[in-house]
Amino acid sequence: MDFDSLARTSSVDWIGQAAHQPLQPGARAELPDQDPFYEPPAGFEHAQPGTVLRSRDVELAFLGLIPQQLQATQLLYRTTDRNGVPHATVTTVLVPAGRDRSRPGPIVSYQCAIDAVDGRCFPSYALRRGARAYGSFTQFELFLIAAIVAQGWAVSVPDHEGRDGHWGAPYEPGYCVLDGVRAALGCEQLELAADSPIGLWGYSGGGLATGWAAEVCSAYAPELNVVGAALGSPVGDLGNTLMRLNGSFWSGLPATMIAALARTYPDLAAVIDEHATVDGRALLHSLESTTTAAAVLRFQHRSLSSYIDQPLEQLIETPAVQHVFEDTRLGGSVPAPPMLMVQAIYDEVISVHDIDTLAATYAAGGARLTYHRDLFSEHILLHPLSTPMVLSWMADRFAGRPVPETVVQKEWPTLLNPKTYLGLARLGLVAVRVITARALR
Protein backbone atom coordinates (compact mmCIF):
# COMPACT_ATOMS: atom_id res chain seq x y z
CA MET A 1 0.00 0.00 0.00
CA ASP A 2 1.44 3.42 -0.94
CA PHE A 3 1.49 6.42 1.33
CA ASP A 4 -1.21 8.34 -0.53
CA SER A 5 -3.61 5.47 0.04
CA LEU A 6 -2.69 5.35 3.68
CA ALA A 7 -3.16 9.09 4.06
CA ARG A 8 -6.76 8.85 2.89
CA THR A 9 -7.64 6.68 5.87
CA SER A 10 -7.67 7.78 9.49
CA SER A 11 -4.24 8.47 10.94
CA VAL A 12 -4.48 5.58 13.41
CA ASP A 13 -5.32 3.09 10.65
CA TRP A 14 -2.44 3.87 8.29
CA ILE A 15 -0.28 1.00 9.40
CA GLY A 16 -2.86 -0.63 11.57
CA GLN A 17 -3.12 -0.02 15.27
CA ALA A 18 -0.72 -2.31 17.09
CA ALA A 19 -2.65 -4.81 19.14
CA HIS A 20 -2.25 -4.49 22.88
CA GLN A 21 -0.53 -7.67 24.00
CA PRO A 22 0.23 -7.59 27.73
CA LEU A 23 3.76 -8.67 28.55
CA GLN A 24 4.17 -11.97 30.29
CA PRO A 25 5.59 -11.81 33.85
CA GLY A 26 9.33 -11.23 33.64
CA ALA A 27 9.23 -10.31 29.94
CA ARG A 28 11.18 -7.29 28.75
CA ALA A 29 9.89 -4.40 26.68
CA GLU A 30 11.83 -4.08 23.43
CA LEU A 31 14.43 -1.33 23.25
CA PRO A 32 13.58 1.51 20.85
CA ASP A 33 16.31 0.56 18.35
CA GLN A 34 14.97 -3.02 18.28
CA ASP A 35 11.23 -2.29 18.37
CA PRO A 36 9.58 -2.07 14.91
CA PHE A 37 6.94 0.25 16.36
CA TYR A 38 9.49 3.10 16.19
CA GLU A 39 10.22 2.62 12.49
CA PRO A 40 8.13 5.08 10.42
CA PRO A 41 6.38 3.83 7.27
CA ALA A 42 7.82 4.58 3.86
CA GLY A 43 6.70 7.98 2.63
CA PHE A 44 5.90 9.31 6.11
CA GLU A 45 7.82 12.50 5.34
CA HIS A 46 4.95 13.65 3.10
CA ALA A 47 2.54 13.75 6.05
CA GLN A 48 1.86 16.93 7.98
CA PRO A 49 3.81 17.47 11.24
CA GLY A 50 1.93 15.87 14.11
CA THR A 51 0.34 13.17 11.97
CA VAL A 52 -0.09 9.86 13.78
CA LEU A 53 1.72 7.07 11.94
CA ARG A 54 1.09 4.21 14.34
CA SER A 55 -0.45 3.68 17.79
CA ARG A 56 -0.58 1.07 20.52
CA ASP A 57 -1.81 0.69 24.08
CA VAL A 58 0.92 -0.06 26.61
CA GLU A 59 1.26 -0.97 30.27
CA LEU A 60 3.23 1.39 32.46
CA ALA A 61 5.18 0.35 35.53
CA PHE A 62 7.26 2.12 38.15
CA LEU A 63 10.89 1.10 37.61
CA GLY A 64 9.55 -1.28 34.98
CA LEU A 65 8.36 -3.60 37.76
CA ILE A 66 5.29 -2.20 39.57
CA PRO A 67 2.35 -2.11 37.12
CA GLN A 68 0.24 1.03 37.12
CA GLN A 69 -3.50 1.40 36.77
CA LEU A 70 -3.12 4.11 34.16
CA GLN A 71 -4.51 4.17 30.63
CA ALA A 72 -1.57 4.76 28.30
CA THR A 73 -1.42 4.99 24.52
CA GLN A 74 1.77 5.44 22.52
CA LEU A 75 1.77 7.33 19.24
CA LEU A 76 4.46 7.30 16.58
CA TYR A 77 4.14 10.63 14.80
CA ARG A 78 5.79 12.73 12.15
CA THR A 79 7.82 15.70 13.36
CA THR A 80 10.77 17.83 12.20
CA ASP A 81 14.42 18.12 13.14
CA ARG A 82 16.33 21.37 13.64
CA ASN A 83 17.15 21.54 9.90
CA GLY A 84 13.54 21.09 8.79
CA VAL A 85 14.06 17.45 7.81
CA PRO A 86 11.07 15.18 8.60
CA HIS A 87 11.57 12.46 11.16
CA ALA A 88 9.42 10.46 13.56
CA THR A 89 9.32 10.04 17.30
CA VAL A 90 6.97 8.70 19.98
CA THR A 91 4.83 10.19 22.70
CA THR A 92 3.13 8.35 25.55
CA VAL A 93 -0.34 9.78 26.23
CA LEU A 94 -2.29 9.23 29.44
CA VAL A 95 -5.95 10.17 29.75
CA PRO A 96 -7.60 10.11 33.20
CA ALA A 97 -10.18 7.37 33.70
CA GLY A 98 -13.69 8.71 33.88
CA ARG A 99 -12.82 11.99 32.20
CA ASP A 100 -15.77 13.79 30.60
CA ARG A 101 -14.77 13.51 26.97
CA SER A 102 -17.68 15.65 25.75
CA ARG A 103 -15.91 18.78 27.00
CA PRO A 104 -12.47 20.19 26.18
CA GLY A 105 -10.16 19.24 29.02
CA PRO A 106 -6.62 20.36 29.79
CA ILE A 107 -3.63 18.51 28.43
CA VAL A 108 -0.09 18.91 29.76
CA SER A 109 2.96 18.06 27.70
CA TYR A 110 5.44 16.90 30.32
CA GLN A 111 9.07 16.81 29.20
CA CYS A 112 11.18 14.32 31.14
CA ALA A 113 14.83 14.97 31.99
CA ILE A 114 16.06 12.34 29.53
CA ASP A 115 19.61 13.74 29.59
CA ALA A 116 21.10 10.84 27.65
CA VAL A 117 21.59 9.42 24.18
CA ASP A 118 20.71 5.87 25.23
CA GLY A 119 17.21 4.80 24.18
CA ARG A 120 16.73 3.15 27.59
CA CYS A 121 16.19 6.66 28.96
CA PHE A 122 13.46 7.61 26.48
CA PRO A 123 10.10 7.89 28.29
CA SER A 124 8.35 5.66 25.77
CA TYR A 125 10.63 2.83 26.93
CA ALA A 126 11.60 3.72 30.51
CA LEU A 127 7.99 4.12 31.68
CA ARG A 128 6.82 0.77 30.31
CA ARG A 129 6.29 -2.44 32.21
CA GLY A 130 9.24 -4.73 31.58
CA ALA A 131 11.68 -1.86 30.87
CA ARG A 132 15.25 -2.32 32.06
CA ALA A 133 16.19 1.33 32.41
CA TYR A 134 18.06 1.43 35.69
CA GLY A 135 19.92 4.72 35.90
CA SER A 136 17.28 6.64 33.97
CA PHE A 137 15.94 9.70 35.80
CA THR A 138 12.80 9.36 33.68
CA GLN A 139 11.56 6.39 35.70
CA PHE A 140 11.26 8.53 38.84
CA GLU A 141 9.34 11.22 36.99
CA LEU A 142 6.41 8.83 36.82
CA PHE A 143 5.41 10.26 40.21
CA LEU A 144 4.96 13.70 38.66
CA ILE A 145 3.23 12.38 35.56
CA ALA A 146 0.79 10.52 37.82
CA ALA A 147 0.26 13.75 39.81
CA ILE A 148 -0.82 15.48 36.60
CA VAL A 149 -3.27 12.67 35.82
CA ALA A 150 -4.59 12.91 39.39
CA GLN A 151 -5.51 16.53 38.59
CA GLY A 152 -7.88 15.19 35.94
CA TRP A 153 -5.63 16.38 33.10
CA ALA A 154 -4.41 14.38 30.12
CA VAL A 155 -0.65 14.11 29.68
CA SER A 156 1.59 13.80 26.62
CA VAL A 157 5.10 12.58 27.46
CA PRO A 158 7.17 12.91 24.27
CA ASP A 159 10.54 11.44 23.40
CA HIS A 160 11.66 15.02 22.79
CA GLU A 161 15.19 14.01 21.81
CA GLY A 162 13.83 12.12 18.80
CA ARG A 163 14.79 8.59 17.85
CA ASP A 164 18.53 9.36 17.80
CA GLY A 165 18.90 10.99 21.23
CA HIS A 166 19.67 14.55 20.10
CA TRP A 167 20.08 15.90 23.62
CA GLY A 168 20.89 19.61 23.62
CA ALA A 169 19.93 20.23 19.99
CA PRO A 170 18.11 23.55 19.48
CA TYR A 171 14.55 23.96 18.18
CA GLU A 172 14.09 20.23 17.51
CA PRO A 173 12.86 19.32 21.02
CA GLY A 174 10.27 22.09 20.74
CA TYR A 175 9.01 20.64 17.46
CA CYS A 176 8.85 17.16 19.00
CA VAL A 177 6.87 18.51 21.97
CA LEU A 178 4.35 20.44 19.90
CA ASP A 179 3.91 17.73 17.30
CA GLY A 180 3.36 15.25 20.13
CA VAL A 181 0.45 17.39 21.32
CA ARG A 182 -0.84 17.61 17.76
CA ALA A 183 -0.69 13.83 17.51
CA ALA A 184 -2.56 13.38 20.80
CA LEU A 185 -5.28 15.83 19.76
CA GLY A 186 -5.56 14.21 16.34
CA CYS A 187 -5.83 10.62 17.62
CA GLU A 188 -9.53 9.78 17.46
CA GLN A 189 -9.39 7.03 20.07
CA LEU A 190 -8.18 9.51 22.72
CA GLU A 191 -11.15 11.84 22.11
CA LEU A 192 -9.26 15.01 23.01
CA ALA A 193 -10.78 18.25 21.73
CA ALA A 194 -8.73 20.27 19.25
CA ASP A 195 -9.23 23.44 21.31
CA SER A 196 -8.10 21.86 24.59
CA PRO A 197 -6.03 24.23 26.72
CA ILE A 198 -2.41 23.08 26.69
CA GLY A 199 0.28 23.46 29.33
CA LEU A 200 3.99 22.73 28.92
CA TRP A 201 6.16 21.59 31.83
CA GLY A 202 9.65 20.23 32.28
CA TYR A 203 12.62 20.40 34.63
CA SER A 204 16.37 20.50 33.96
CA GLY A 205 16.87 18.79 30.59
CA GLY A 206 13.09 18.66 30.35
CA GLY A 207 13.01 22.37 31.17
CA LEU A 208 15.35 23.00 28.23
CA ALA A 209 13.00 21.13 25.88
CA THR A 210 10.05 23.05 27.34
CA GLY A 211 11.89 26.31 26.75
CA TRP A 212 12.35 25.49 23.08
CA ALA A 213 8.68 24.53 22.76
CA ALA A 214 7.63 27.81 24.39
CA GLU A 215 9.91 29.82 22.09
CA VAL A 216 8.74 28.23 18.82
CA CYS A 217 5.08 27.48 19.52
CA SER A 218 3.57 30.69 18.14
CA ALA A 219 5.36 30.30 14.80
CA TYR A 220 5.47 26.51 14.50
CA ALA A 221 2.07 25.51 15.92
CA PRO A 222 -0.11 28.66 16.10
CA GLU A 223 -3.31 26.60 16.13
CA LEU A 224 -2.48 25.02 19.48
CA ASN A 225 -4.09 26.64 22.52
CA VAL A 226 -0.92 26.84 24.64
CA VAL A 227 -1.93 28.72 27.79
CA GLY A 228 1.23 28.37 29.87
CA ALA A 229 4.75 26.97 30.08
CA ALA A 230 6.56 26.04 33.30
CA LEU A 231 10.35 25.85 33.00
CA GLY A 232 12.17 24.33 35.94
CA SER A 233 15.92 24.99 36.04
CA PRO A 234 16.33 24.90 32.26
CA VAL A 235 19.81 24.55 30.78
CA GLY A 236 19.96 28.14 29.57
CA ASP A 237 23.58 28.20 28.38
CA LEU A 238 25.30 24.95 27.42
CA GLY A 239 28.73 26.53 27.13
CA ASN A 240 28.71 27.97 30.63
CA THR A 241 27.25 24.74 32.00
CA LEU A 242 29.97 22.63 30.38
CA MET A 243 32.79 24.73 31.80
CA ARG A 244 31.23 24.86 35.27
CA LEU A 245 30.49 21.15 35.57
CA ASN A 246 33.70 19.92 33.96
CA GLY A 247 35.69 18.06 36.60
CA SER A 248 32.85 18.15 39.12
CA PHE A 249 30.69 15.34 40.46
CA TRP A 250 28.29 16.08 37.56
CA SER A 251 30.89 16.11 34.79
CA GLY A 252 29.24 13.12 33.12
CA LEU A 253 26.32 15.35 32.07
CA PRO A 254 28.26 17.73 29.79
CA ALA A 255 30.34 14.83 28.49
CA THR A 256 27.18 12.99 27.47
CA MET A 257 25.75 16.14 25.91
CA ILE A 258 28.90 16.53 23.82
CA ALA A 259 28.43 12.96 22.59
CA ALA A 260 24.84 13.88 21.64
CA LEU A 261 25.70 17.20 20.00
CA ALA A 262 28.39 15.56 17.88
CA ARG A 263 25.53 13.73 16.17
CA THR A 264 23.84 17.03 15.39
CA TYR A 265 26.80 19.23 14.41
CA PRO A 266 29.23 17.71 11.87
CA ASP A 267 31.78 20.48 12.50
CA LEU A 268 31.81 19.63 16.20
CA ALA A 269 32.26 15.95 15.35
CA ALA A 270 35.23 16.94 13.17
CA VAL A 271 36.82 18.87 16.07
CA ILE A 272 36.37 15.85 18.31
CA ASP A 273 37.90 13.51 15.73
CA GLU A 274 40.89 15.82 15.35
CA HIS A 275 41.62 16.62 18.98
CA ALA A 276 40.21 13.78 21.11
CA THR A 277 42.63 11.11 22.25
CA VAL A 278 41.94 7.44 21.61
CA ASP A 279 40.58 7.18 25.15
CA GLY A 280 38.51 10.32 24.61
CA ARG A 281 36.82 8.97 21.48
CA ALA A 282 36.18 5.66 23.20
CA LEU A 283 34.68 7.45 26.18
CA LEU A 284 32.27 9.53 24.10
CA HIS A 285 31.25 6.46 22.15
CA SER A 286 30.54 4.57 25.36
CA LEU A 287 28.41 7.42 26.71
CA GLU A 288 26.04 6.97 23.77
CA SER A 289 24.89 3.69 25.34
CA THR A 290 24.98 4.74 28.99
CA THR A 291 22.06 5.80 31.17
CA THR A 292 22.11 9.20 32.84
CA ALA A 293 22.95 8.11 36.39
CA ALA A 294 25.55 5.63 35.14
CA ALA A 295 27.25 8.38 33.13
CA VAL A 296 27.34 10.67 36.18
CA LEU A 297 28.77 7.99 38.45
CA ARG A 298 31.27 6.72 35.90
CA PHE A 299 32.62 10.15 34.89
CA GLN A 300 32.44 11.96 38.22
CA HIS A 301 35.27 14.43 38.91
CA ARG A 302 36.93 13.72 35.57
CA SER A 303 37.99 16.57 33.32
CA LEU A 304 37.56 16.65 29.57
CA SER A 305 41.08 18.09 29.44
CA SER A 306 42.40 14.59 30.07
CA TYR A 307 40.86 13.37 26.82
CA ILE A 308 42.02 16.01 24.32
CA ASP A 309 45.40 17.03 22.91
CA GLN A 310 45.21 20.73 23.81
CA PRO A 311 43.88 22.84 26.69
CA LEU A 312 40.11 22.74 26.97
CA GLU A 313 39.87 26.53 27.21
CA GLN A 314 41.66 26.83 23.88
CA LEU A 315 39.46 24.25 22.18
CA ILE A 316 36.32 25.94 23.49
CA GLU A 317 37.27 29.12 21.61
CA THR A 318 37.35 27.48 18.17
CA PRO A 319 34.61 28.71 15.77
CA ALA A 320 32.95 25.30 15.50
CA VAL A 321 32.51 24.94 19.27
CA GLN A 322 31.45 28.57 19.74
CA HIS A 323 28.83 28.12 17.01
CA VAL A 324 27.34 25.18 18.89
CA PHE A 325 27.18 27.14 22.15
CA GLU A 326 25.55 30.14 20.48
CA ASP A 327 23.12 28.02 18.48
CA THR A 328 21.94 26.03 21.51
CA ARG A 329 21.40 28.99 23.84
CA LEU A 330 17.81 29.73 24.83
CA GLY A 331 16.51 33.29 24.52
CA GLY A 332 16.59 33.87 20.78
CA SER A 333 12.80 34.30 20.73
CA VAL A 334 10.39 35.54 23.35
CA PRO A 335 7.75 32.92 24.21
CA ALA A 336 4.15 33.97 23.53
CA PRO A 337 2.46 31.94 26.31
CA PRO A 338 2.70 33.01 29.96
CA MET A 339 5.69 31.46 31.73
CA LEU A 340 6.64 30.31 35.17
CA MET A 341 10.36 29.77 35.76
CA VAL A 342 11.78 28.22 38.91
CA GLN A 343 15.45 28.06 39.81
CA ALA A 344 17.41 27.29 42.97
CA ILE A 345 19.86 30.03 43.89
CA TYR A 346 22.33 27.45 45.22
CA ASP A 347 21.87 25.01 42.34
CA GLU A 348 25.00 22.92 41.87
CA VAL A 349 24.10 21.86 38.31
CA ILE A 350 22.51 24.87 36.60
CA SER A 351 23.92 28.31 37.42
CA VAL A 352 21.34 30.76 38.75
CA HIS A 353 23.21 33.50 36.88
CA ASP A 354 22.48 31.80 33.54
CA ILE A 355 18.78 31.60 34.39
CA ASP A 356 18.79 35.19 35.67
CA THR A 357 20.12 36.21 32.25
CA LEU A 358 17.49 34.17 30.43
CA ALA A 359 14.70 35.58 32.60
CA ALA A 360 15.93 39.14 31.99
CA THR A 361 16.03 38.48 28.25
CA TYR A 362 12.47 37.19 28.23
CA ALA A 363 11.22 40.02 30.45
CA ALA A 364 12.92 42.69 28.29
CA GLY A 365 11.18 41.20 25.26
CA GLY A 366 7.75 41.56 26.85
CA ALA A 367 7.20 38.00 28.05
CA ARG A 368 4.54 37.38 30.70
CA LEU A 369 6.90 35.84 33.21
CA THR A 370 6.87 34.83 36.84
CA TYR A 371 10.39 33.92 37.95
CA HIS A 372 10.83 32.19 41.30
CA ARG A 373 14.39 32.13 42.62
CA ASP A 374 14.36 29.68 45.50
CA LEU A 375 16.58 30.50 48.45
CA PHE A 376 16.83 27.14 50.23
CA SER A 377 16.61 24.40 47.59
CA GLU A 378 19.17 22.79 45.29
CA HIS A 379 18.83 21.19 41.86
CA ILE A 380 17.36 17.78 42.70
CA LEU A 381 15.19 18.88 45.62
CA LEU A 382 13.56 21.85 43.89
CA HIS A 383 11.71 19.74 41.33
CA PRO A 384 9.36 17.97 43.77
CA LEU A 385 9.22 20.99 46.09
CA SER A 386 8.12 23.25 43.25
CA THR A 387 5.52 20.80 41.93
CA PRO A 388 2.64 22.20 44.05
CA MET A 389 3.47 25.70 42.80
CA VAL A 390 3.60 24.55 39.18
CA LEU A 391 0.33 22.61 39.37
CA SER A 392 -1.43 25.54 41.06
CA TRP A 393 -0.06 27.99 38.49
CA MET A 394 -1.07 25.67 35.64
CA ALA A 395 -4.59 25.26 37.09
CA ASP A 396 -4.95 29.05 37.03
CA ARG A 397 -3.95 29.12 33.37
CA PHE A 398 -6.43 26.36 32.51
CA ALA A 399 -9.15 28.25 34.38
CA GLY A 400 -8.43 31.39 32.39
CA ARG A 401 -7.54 33.47 35.44
CA PRO A 402 -5.58 36.68 34.82
CA VAL A 403 -1.86 36.25 34.30
CA PRO A 404 0.19 37.87 37.07
CA GLU A 405 2.32 40.85 36.16
CA THR A 406 5.90 40.02 35.28
CA VAL A 407 7.78 39.20 38.47
CA VAL A 408 11.52 38.65 38.22
CA GLN A 409 13.88 37.36 40.92
CA LYS A 410 11.35 36.54 43.61
CA GLU A 411 13.38 34.91 46.40
CA TRP A 412 10.74 33.63 48.82
CA PRO A 413 11.73 30.04 49.73
CA THR A 414 9.29 27.35 48.62
CA LEU A 415 9.76 25.65 51.99
CA LEU A 416 8.23 28.67 53.76
CA ASN A 417 5.03 28.58 51.73
CA PRO A 418 2.26 26.70 53.61
CA LYS A 419 0.68 25.67 50.30
CA THR A 420 3.84 23.70 49.54
CA TYR A 421 3.18 21.25 52.35
CA LEU A 422 -0.45 20.65 51.35
CA GLY A 423 0.70 20.07 47.79
CA LEU A 424 3.51 17.78 48.90
CA ALA A 425 1.04 15.78 51.00
CA ARG A 426 -1.06 15.24 47.88
CA LEU A 427 2.03 14.35 45.89
CA GLY A 428 2.99 11.90 48.64
CA LEU A 429 -0.39 10.19 48.36
CA VAL A 430 0.10 9.90 44.61
CA ALA A 431 3.57 8.43 45.18
CA VAL A 432 2.15 5.85 47.60
CA ARG A 433 -0.43 4.82 45.01
CA VAL A 434 2.26 4.52 42.34
CA ILE A 435 4.50 2.40 44.56
CA THR A 436 1.62 0.19 45.70
CA ALA A 437 0.10 -0.12 42.20
CA ARG A 438 -3.22 1.39 43.27
CA ALA A 439 -5.53 3.45 41.10
CA LEU A 440 -5.35 7.24 41.31
CA ARG A 441 -8.29 9.11 42.72
Task: Please provide a written account of the structure.
This is Lipase family protein. InterPro entries: AB_hydrolase_fold (IPR029058), Lipase_secreted (IPR005152). Pfam families: LIP. The protein has 441 residues and is α/β, with parallel strands linked by helices. The chain folds into 2 domains: 341 residues, Alpha/Beta hydrolase fold, catalytic domain (Rossmann fold, 3-Layer(aba) Sandwich); 90 residues, 434 Repressor (Amino-terminal Domain), CATH 1.10.260. It has 15 helices and 12 strands. Helix 13 links the parallel strand 10 and strand 11. Helix 3 crosses helix 15, helix 6 packs antiparallel against helix 7 and helix 7 crosses helix 8. The N and C termini lie far apart (44 Å).
